[in-house]
Design a protein that fits this description.
479 residues, alpha+beta, Beta-lactamase, five-stranded antiparallel β-sheet, 13 helices, 41% helix
């Protein structure tokens, strides 16, 4: 009895040991999964999404304009003061609604912002500038006085009217967390945006050729007025102002921002290899943190992701899109694809393809392709009607005699032949599918489809493990 109990304890101990080994094997995966779900970079939580390094700024958005794809998201939809990033929208709306050669005179509305402690060009009452000069001052020197004066002028004498235009334009662009209260970004209750919205606004603004020229300018001279001499201004973005110290390959422009509440904010435009990306960092602890995060995001965008071209098949025409972002070692064929087919009205089909990587859109392509030629169907040869046999009503004809019996048998044979043909077609389709399935080459020239081979191998492994456990249990009991 004592020996049996010892054997039972040994068997239980062995079982517990095996269970412990299994749990330890699963532990790293469990810890990694839990860690991923707590990662502050939300895009890192998606399995199969290229991982980004930690970021110092609280809110970050890396946006690729070639496919309108967010590559890095760290709190990008959290509302926060945008500081002078506001002026990107101010300049965009003014360019869309104003005349650059108009002369704009400084009123008390604008001059009130020319105070010490804020970013301005110390304009004075009555000074007049072209709208072009004012927009350069707003964008490069981040002048609050000029930004506010532009708002009053374009708003028809009302800053509030201009701010309403800004908010309406933000909605058109697709912003969901933005509410502007002023045109310069000075602290104000309810004046908020998000890193995601600022990326969308920045991407929309860079489409404007004049904005692109302005935002990429390093040095600019504002013409002299009747009151002041010419003003020399330099772009506040460190990568443009001091490229030797802070420059990045492909930087074409950007905008800085700072208030105590907003912290340091930075928008950076980078263009390489036909790809234009927008890096947005907000609520950073110093401009150095913004620059470091921006540098890492630029590297991530161009090293971890590749922009690929959709190649239409012969006879197809690519009419829109055709660019797809994929992780570096993946291809377009690895992406999921949603396809919508409509009639183009000219004998062709219009195919709208949306490409997805792990549920996120990474590209689109609109293709016109010829409509498929309908496969002709065989029309069965009509059989002549069977003549009446002349048999009296209420009596049965003799089987196998007369034309009716002959054609009845022929019809049965035809039905059987059709059934056999369908079965043959099905067998051929199944054989073709089996032939296309991935194969595994076994010893002695044996070939097997991969799926059943894996199932058999797993089953064999489980059986082997069961046998080993039984043998171990028996051995322990003999002891």
């Amino acid at each position: 009895m004592l020996k049996i109990r010892r054997n039972q304890k040994s068997a239980k101990g062995l079982t517990l040991l095996l269970a412990l080994i299994f749990m330890l094997g699963m532990l790293p995966q469990t810890v990694m999964a839990a860690r991923d779900q707590n990662d502050p970079i939300i895009t890192n939580r998606t399995e199969g999404w290229p991982k980004a390094s930690e970021k110092d700024c609280d809110y970050v958005c890396l946006y690729d304009t070639s496919t309108d794809t967010v590559l890095i998201n760290k709190g990008m939809d959290v509302q926060t003061p945008p500081a002078s990033l506001t002026k990107i929208m101010t300049v965009l709306v003014a360019l869309e609604r104003g005349n650059l050669d108009d002369m704009v005179a400084m009123t008390q509305t604008g001059v009130d912002f020319a105070v010490s402690g804020s970013s301005n060009l110390y304009t004075v009452l009555g000074e007049s500038f072209t709208l072009r000069d004012m927009l350069y001052g707003t964008l490069l020197a981040s002048a609050n006085d000029m930004a506010t004066q532009v708002a009053e002028y374009i708003g028809g004498g009302s800053v509030d009217n201009f701010v309403a235009m800004m908010n309406e334009r933000a909605k058109e662009i697709g912003c969901t967390g933005t509410n502007f209260v002023n045109a310069c970004g000075m602290p104000a209750d309810g004046h908020v945006s998000t890193a995601h919205d600022m990326a969308l606004i920045s991407a929309e603004a860079i489409k404007n050729d004049t904005f692109r020229e302005m935002v990429s300018t390093v040095n600019y001279t504002i013409a002299a007025t009747d009151i002041y001499a010419a003003r020399e201004i330099t772009n506040h973005h460190p990568s443009l102002a001091s490229p030797d110290a802070y420059g990045f390959q492909g930087v074409i422009g950007g905008k800085t921002g700072y208030t105590d509440a907003a912290g340091n904010c930075l928008v950076t435009y980078v263009e390489r290899d036909g790809r234009l990306i927008v890096c947005v960092t907000m609520h950073g602890d110093g401009i150095g943190a913004c620059l470091q995060d921006t540098s890492e995001m630029i590297t991530y965008a161009y090293v971890k992701w590749v922009l690929r071209n959709v190649k239409p098949k012969e006879g197809e025409e690519l009419v829109a899109g055709g660019k797809v972002l994929t992780p570096k070692k993946k291809k377009i064929k690895n992406c999921d694809k949603n396809e919508t087919v409509t009639d183009n009205g000219d004998g062709r089909e219009k195919v709208e393809n949306v490409y997805l990587w792990k549920g996120t859109e990474v590209g689109r392509a609109t293709i016109l392709r010829p409509k498929p030629t309908p496969v002709p169907t065989e029309t069965p040869t009509p059989q002549p009607a069977a003549p009446e046999t002349g048999a009296p009503q209420g009596t049965e004809s003799t089987a196998g005699t007369g034309y009716g019996a002959f054609f009845g048998e022929s019809g049965a044979e035809t039905a059987q032949t059709g059934t056999a043909a369908n079965a043959l077609t099905t067998d051929k389709a199944q054989a073709a599918q089996a032939e296309e399935a991935p194969k595994v080459q076994l010893p002695f020239g044996i070939t097997m489809n991969r799926a059943p081979f894996i199932s058999i191998a797993v089953l064999a492994l489980l059986i082997l493990l069961g046998i080993i456990l039984i043998l171990l249990t028996v051995a322990l009991r003999k002891k």
